[in-house]
């Protein structure tokens, strides 16, 4: 529950601190005194958008802090642990707005996002503001009411998880089917390209090697002539170089012992002779393998022509790139064969998930169905209590296609005058009727959810007299098990308060400021009497105020 609210420099609030009780807290004050400003400040720590226009004094930052008691509140503790915030029995939510409009949020003094603040606040507080009765006409809100009463939260979480898996699997199936259609359209063309490459059966680096071989074959005669001349000069001329070197070595050999440098010269000449002999042998070997082959040249030219044609067609440069393309085409053709198996497996997965989701959705529907008549009966009873004896609520549930919350479309229908003509709430209910209807519904839902604080900002719009008294009694009943904070203009409701706060304006310096104070018993009687009869309450009004409080 909210134990303390501290506000600094927000609109015309200089600084106030409010300590709330754990039961029914009533806030009253003249129109324009600043009650709505309080709710605006409170909404900031509940995750609403910040606006720098609330900074009247631009030399100081705006500061709003709420302290909550969260003992035995498991959902809050779990959230804090999962989001890695400090976990204690006391929770502090804070918003700061700088003069430049930059907003910062904190959870237990740790920086947080506004979204985290909003998520956490939804576990702590239900804030009902003046125009929130419009929610009554919203189908999501109506479904949430029925699910809360039916205790569907756990099943709904399971269902949502499986529904999302079913949606994801359905999207994947659709993608596979689209891929198959695309594959089918392109399969013939891919097959043609693959066959074209497969028929030629190129080997790795083949075109590059054939190009080199063609150059050799085309120059075969010139190469053989040059090789013959070199071989002849080295080995077979009238004065072969190898033989000449041998003779030179023999001429120097006798003097090797006489001159110390000749031995090295002889060794080098011997090495040169051996190297030239090897070269001559290798030239002879090469010469034997260099042959002019006209048929081979013709075949290579044809092979290269086919290869270059494909390189140009596919904008490629090498044989290996053609082989890579051939492999890719083979994979695409294989995918066409395999995709049917993938589609079949995915169809089974989709079908299984749908059946699982449908089973849980049916369970949700059954639970909702069981609570429809009790909800109608309880709301209609409370409507009579709050001064609407002729009004009736009817819950209509239709079966529709599987969606994020099951198989149902839920509508709250309303008949204000026992005409038996039930219409959607948003079409037929007035503002006052909506306010009382919302309170009746929330009082029933409150018993089914673990929400420690409920805040009502002028939910009593459009009612007075006995109806206002009954609204106060309903709030008093709700406050037995949770904290209620209510801004009201109705003395009948104010009289039911466990703690009564009064919002007022005062002149501080030359500026108008909003302030708030907790009223004691006598001040409460006077405040309620003023709500009944005006600024100067009569003795009868004072007596009436005492009666309302008792």
From TrEMBL:
May be involved in recombinational repair of damaged DNA. It comes from the Bacteria. One of its GO terms (biological process) is DNA recombination. GO terms for cellular component: bacterial nucleoid. GO terms for molecular function: ATP binding. Residues 2-505 form the RecF/RecN/SMC N-terminal domain. Belongs to the RecN family. This is DNA repair protein RecN. It comes from Sediminibacterium goheungense. CDD domains: ABC_RecN. Residues 193-220 form a coiled coil. Keywords: ATP-binding, Coiled coil, DNA damage, DNA repair, Nucleotide-binding. The keyword Disulfide bond does not apply.
């Amino acid at each position: 529950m909210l134990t303390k609210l501290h506000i600094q420099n927000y609109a015309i609030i200089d600084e106030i601190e409010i300590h709330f009780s754990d039961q029914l807290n009533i806030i009253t004050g003249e129109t324009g005194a600043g009650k709505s400003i309080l709710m605006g400040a409170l909404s900031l720590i509940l995750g609403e958008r910040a606006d720098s226009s609330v900074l009247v004094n631009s030399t100081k930052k705006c500061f709003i802090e709420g302290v909550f008691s969260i003992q035995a509140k498991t959902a809050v503790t779990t959230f804090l642990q999962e989001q890695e915030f400090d976990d204690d029995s006391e929770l502090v939510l804070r918003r700061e707005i700088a003069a430049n409009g930059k907003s910062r949020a904190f959870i237990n003094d740790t920086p947080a996002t506004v979204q985290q603040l909003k998520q956490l606040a939804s576990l702590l507080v239900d804030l009902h503001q003046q125009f929130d009765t419009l929610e009554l006409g919203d189908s999501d809100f109506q479904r949430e009411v029925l699910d809360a009463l039916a205790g569907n939260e756990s099943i709904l979480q399971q269902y949502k998880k499986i529904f999302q898996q079913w949606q994801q699997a359905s999207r994947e199936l659709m993608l596979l089917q689209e891929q198959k259609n695309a594959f089918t359209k392109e399969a013939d063309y891919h097959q043609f390209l693959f066959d074209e490459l497969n028929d030629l059966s190129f080997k790795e680096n083949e075109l590059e090697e054939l190009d080199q071989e063609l150059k050799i074959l085309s120059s075969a005669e010139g190469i053989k002539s040059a090789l013959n001349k070199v071989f002849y000069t080295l080995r077979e001329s009238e004065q072969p170089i190898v033989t000449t070197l041998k003779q030179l070595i023999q001429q120097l050999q006798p003097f090797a012992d006489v001159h110390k440098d000749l031995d090295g010269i002889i060794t080098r000449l011997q090495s040169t002779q051996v190297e030239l002999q090897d070269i001559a042998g290798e030239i002879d070997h090469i010469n034997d393998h260099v042959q002019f082959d006209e048929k081979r040249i013709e075949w290579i030219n044809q092979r290269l022509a086919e290869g270059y044609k494909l390189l140009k067609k596919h904008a490629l440069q090498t044989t290996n790139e053609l082989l890579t393309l051939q492999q890719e085409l083979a994979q695409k053709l294989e995918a066409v064969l395999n995709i049917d198996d993938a589609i079949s497996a995915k169809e089974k997965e989709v079908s299984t998930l749908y059946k699982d989701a449908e089973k849980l959705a049916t369970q949700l529907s059954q639970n909702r169905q069981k609570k429809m008549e009790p909800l109608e009966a309880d709301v209609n009873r409370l409507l009579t209590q709050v001064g609407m004896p002729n009004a009736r609520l009817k819950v209509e549930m239709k079966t529709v296609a599987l969606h994020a919350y099951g198989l149902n479309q839920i509508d709250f229908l309303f008949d204000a005058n026992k005409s038996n003509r039930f219409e959607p709430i948003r079409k037929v209910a007035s503002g006052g009727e909506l306010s009382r209807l919302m309170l009746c519904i929330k009082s029933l839902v409150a018993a089914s959810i673990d929400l420690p604080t409920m805040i009502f900002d002028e939910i009593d719009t459009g009612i007075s007299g006995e109806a206002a008294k009954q609204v106060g009694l309903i709030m008093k009943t709700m406050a037995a098990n949770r904290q209620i904070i209510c801004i009201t203009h109705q003395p009948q409701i104010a009289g039911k308060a466990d703690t009564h706060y009064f919002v007022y304006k005062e002149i501080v310096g030359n500026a108008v400021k909003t302030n708030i104070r907790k009223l004691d018993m006598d001040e409460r009687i006077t405040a309620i009497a003023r709500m009944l009869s005006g600024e100067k309450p009569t003795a009868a009004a004072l007596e009436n105020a005492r009666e309302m409080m008792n």
